[in-house]
Amino acid sequence: MMGIGRLVVSLKSKLKALKPKKCYDKVDKSESMRIEIRSKKRRSSFKRLSRLLIHQRTKLRILVSYFW
């Protein structure tokens, strides 16, 4: 049973090696692209932080209402 599994894995890897690899030209990032990437990162981190704070505030309200 284990021999069949190894055979399948080796065949998959050999088939993967036979596929032609896609060649892409590397695009240099312009200043505007860099600014856009930074702003997207900031936006996503702000969203994560705000979700976390809302969650923490909700947990705090539940705890306070439980003890009062």
Automatic annotation (TrEMBL):
It comes from the Eukaryota. PANTHER family: BNACNNG33880D PROTEIN, MADS-BOX DOMAIN-CONTAINING PROTEIN. This is Uncharacterized protein. It comes from Kingdonia uniflora.
